Amino acid sequence: MKLFDVYPLFNITPERAQGSWLWDDKGEKYLDLYGGHAVISIGHSHSHYVKSLNDQLGKIAFYSNSVQNPIQEKLADKLGQLSGYPEYQLFLCNSGAEANENALKLASFITGRKKVIAFKKAFHGRTSGAVAATDNPKIVAPFNAGHDIAFVPMNDEAAFNEVLDDTIAAVIIEGIQGVGGIQLPSDSFLQFLEKKCKENGSVFILDEIQCGYGRTGKFFAHQHAGVKPHLITTAKGMGNGFPIGGVLIHPDIKPWSGMLGTTFGGNYLASVAGLAVLEVMEKENLIHNAAVQGDYWIAALKKYPSLKDVRGRGLMIGFDLPEEKKSVRNDLLQKHKIFTGEAKPNTIRLLPSLALTKEEADLFLTALTEELK
Ligand SMILES: Cc1ncc(COP(=O)(O)O)c(C=O)c1O
User: Fold this and answer.
1) What pLDDT digit, counting tens, does each position of 41-77 carry?
2) Under a CB-based contact definition with an 8 Å cutoff, are residues 37 and 342 in contact?
3) Which of 8, 59, 231, 368 is the most buried (most CB within 10 A)?
4) Calpha distance 358→356 (Å, rounded)
5) Fold of the CATH domain 18-42+285-372
6) 222 DSSP 8-state letter
7) pTM for the structure as a whole
């Protein structure tokens, strides 16, 4: 059977990885500054993470959500403590799209409404509800388009006010737009949305799937603005490669039996992976490291006269290449063996492990200097 050919692939076959580094089947070494779409949070193959997963695999890998699972509870406690949301409730699922799907569903349950406000260029995943909240026609099928979504430019209060009415169940926004090219909602815009949602009885959803889990130097990106959403969705860095997603749910939102559900969500292996990630983040002070290395990198990148609009927070950074230097991302990979991300047409995205060192950040700067000459 052939694989369904939907992914443009690099001609590279990684065989093993450690920290911020990958090795391919030819023994070539690569610096990973992308973490496979911001997934690698604590570094590849961290010893505590590997041991925790191996130990659990030898005991029990899976049973359904019909029995007690103390590891889920430990994970929820640790997540509450580190994120500053100890009073919230946690629903565990398997991916980012699923987390957003469940958040939108919750919002509709609570309000009895159907409509959603989302933002232009945002990306929330590929399930039916989540993908409908994305305004990229290439990835929205007719089946998805039945959802009633109003798209508004980010940071545009007047445009938002025009579509807000008492039919709006939810407003969903990324703490920082990732796939949309590292675009930041301003702190005041997030505060405005929080206030408007409260006044209007709409549910305020923060998609922290790419920008959360310590990446911006706070546990969640929206915490820079001091807002408190009703629902926060997370995935990617939460499992450092093990598929896991979650929705953090405001304490006023009451569950009923069967309201949400999943077979695999929160299984033993996923929960152990999630717990190990948080333990490493805490022990190694990785959120602080993300802030320090991020400030260093952003300041250094701002000194390159040819780079436009260096932006981001912590280790979620984007910048635009000059038109004639569009090949830089490919050259960084082919010549310097450095993985980075992109956003169309010419933005480089940096989303490395939160354990990135200054030496690793400098390797990138040296390679970039050479390519921009
Ligand atoms: C902000 C955001 N939300 C949701 C998703 C979807 O996550 P997943 O691919 O795990 O379904 C992504 C994936 O890139 C994302 O960046």
Assistant:
1) 999 999 999 999 999 999 999 999 999 999 999 999 9
2) no
3) 231
4) 7
5) Aspartate Aminotransferase, domain 1 (3.90.1150)
6) G
7) 0.98
